[in-house]
Design goal:
The complex is a heterodimer of chains A (400) and B (325). Chain A has two domains: 24-217 and 227-344, Rossmann fold (3-Layer(aba) Sandwich), CATH 3.40.50; 350-397, no CATH class. Chain A contains 14 helices and eight strands. Chain A has helices at residues 45-70, 84-91, 107-113, 117-124, 158-172, 190-202, 233-237, 249-266, 294-301, 305-315, 321-344, 363-378, 387-390, 394-397, and strands spanning 24-25, 99-101, 178-183, 206-212, 215-216, 219-220, 240-245, 270-275. In chain A, the strands form two sheets. In chain A, strands 1-7-8-4-3-2 form a six-stranded parallel beta sheet, with helices on both faces. In chain A, helix 5 packs parallel to helix 6. Chain A is globular, with a radius of gyration of 24 Å. By secondary structure, chain B is of the alpha/beta class. Chain B has two domains: 2-185, Thiamin diphosphate (ThDP)-binding fold, Pyr/PP domains (Rossmann fold, 3-Layer(aba) Sandwich), CATH 3.40.50.970; 198-324, Rossmann fold. Chain B is 36% helix and 20% strand. In chain B, the strands form three sheets. In chain B, strands 3-2-4-5-7-6-12 form a seven-stranded mixed beta sheet, with helices on both faces. In chain B, strands 9-11-10-13-14 form a five-stranded mixed beta sheet, with helices on both faces. In chain B, strands 1-8 form a two-stranded antiparallel ribbon. Chain B is globular and about 60 Å long. Classes of the chains: A alpha/beta (400), B alpha/beta (325). The interface between A and B is large, with 50 and 48 residues.
Amino acid sequence: MTTTKAKVVYSPVFTDGAEFRIPTFKLLKQDGSLYKGAKAPELDKEKALRIYRAMVTTRILDERMLAAQRQGRLSFYMQCTGEEAAVIGSTAALDDGDMIMAQYREQGSLVYRGFTIDEFMNQLFGNELDYGKGRQMPVHYGSSKLNYMTISSPLATQIPQATGYAYGQKMAGEGHCTVTYFGEGAASEGDFHAALNMAAVHRVPVIFLCRNNGYAISTPAAEQFAADGVAPRAYGYKMDVIRVDGNDILAMHEATKAARSLAVEHNRPVLIEAMSYRLAAHSSSDDPSGYRSKDEEAVWREKDPILRMRLWLERKKWWTEDDEKQLQENMRREVLETMKRAQKRPPPALDTLVSDVYDEVPPALAEQFDKLKAHIRRHPDAYPKSAEHAKQTSKEGGLR
Amino acid sequence: MTHMNMLQAINNALDTAMAANERVLCFGEDVGVFGGVFRATSNLQQKYGKARCFNTPLVEQGIIGFANGLAAQGSVPVAEIQFADYIFPAFDQIVNESAKFRYRSGNLFNVGGLTIRAPYGGGIAGGLYHSQSPEAYFAHTPGLKIVVPRNPHQAKGLLLAAIHDQNPTLFFEPKRLYRASVGDVPDEDYRLPLGEAEVLKEGTDVTVLGWGAQMEVIEHAVEMAEKEGISCEVIDLRTILPWDVETVANSVFKTGRLVVTHEAPLTGGFAGEIAATIQERCFLYLESPIARVTGMDTPFPLVLEKEHLPNHLKVYEAIRSSVEF
């Protein structure tokens, strides 16, 4: 029988939970100064600059790669623009050994952890050095050495996986947690609810980081849920929750650091709702002018998280105009040079079409592959990417 | 050797796996202290603790999402879906996630340690939602393995193989035989090969192929046919995906005839895939059309389930028609 410790009433009393308004945690004003009463965060110069460089690098990478997509060099791209603080501020508060299970707009986490521009480019161009072997669309990065789970297009599937991954970390007892990122739109999926409920019931060290950026492609948050954001849902699962100004790098870092200790030291899962705005289009295939105004975008451009951090760094005398100029120039040059390099590299070998489906290629698939190669050998001109590979028969090429 | 039923064999396999490797975890709805609605996980929580054998909330997509994450982390999850009929909320996690984890990451990550157990099939007055055989939906998904045992000895050996296999594996258990099928089961850890069919009886006139609970049906049908002098070769496919084309084709080269039977509906059923492949391989050897004896193209009925199911009489008739064609 279900019991509750709540008090008893003798007439029907309904509640919509409106009394539980969740406040927004902020530290940094747009001019780079701290809010009155805000506690200065523990963030040393070295780490602050690592964070800032990652934010700028992410912005430049996004600008250049969108331009490359517009020039037809790339099939598809997705920008993180406007949400760099939410993503990098939280990642920077983790241990580098913690697992990240992201949605698809969190390339800033990878930049912060040291994914090189070459590694980005190899994935974007799907060349022979792409870890994903050219199998997924651009921006589906992954890195086992950086503990960054390979991106999967279906939304929210990574959220219950994060709960499971973190359960395994808890069993291993090595003091690690998992953070999973997703948008406020993905939070409508059933997987979100399953994941949070299971994490709360089983006391799993996982941080659910919702990037509430206002839009799921064209659907505004107001048409996604009736409640005051995603954060109040945590009450229903009896989970710790905090709402943070997602454009405030210091607040994001502080909140995530505190969330991590709840998760790792007390086995308490946490929901963080980062309030931000997707300044760019959903993807290179989207055009926001069809569903939102330039005026609305301009308001959020004023709240640029990168500029806000730069002003804070300058106030602390940790960053100068010259540093900025040098970083911008270096990154632009590196992005362009690596792009050219990656574009010239050959595509993955033909056998990557059938490897990794299983740990070993099953006989029926090996047979399909032999037939394909024979077909390509008969029509080499129709398959310029693989005609050379197809010359190897399975005996020589050694698939089985 | 111990004489036991299929449930006890499955329980014994889980116990064996958990004893050998502390990273093996069993979870699902009601699998904890209660031991599962069919008691397949009996005493595992008592023996290995709540952290390794536990109840989950009632959410299949969550159970499999959670299991995918655990497997990616290096644990060895054995997730139970209470009935195969209720696996569909987890379809996305299985088809888009489990099956593609290794491929999409270029083998940076995999969920090879994952095993999903689910009781399937009819004959227990379970109606629409406690009777289905959903193997064909999953057989259309490269990256998965699908295994169905026919008796206790097979159940233990195949389940242990599935747990140790480095690919995500669906293990569909014929629940009609959970207690009905009994036999001697070795006490030690043993594994039967995945991807290999087993010829249970050699014959010369017709090959009769099935898996899981249909093997018992085939046995009765073949008894009837043999009384009339028809020599039947009986094959248990055991693994639906990837399936053993060689063994089936070699048999049909010899007999020239094939009868395939499964409980799932005819249209889009896995017998269609087998028939297509075997006619391609054995075209000039075939003496009669490949016959499919299956459930009808209806939702699974209740009161008329005997009429619906491909029982031994229907299989017997198909064997005769094939031989007399």
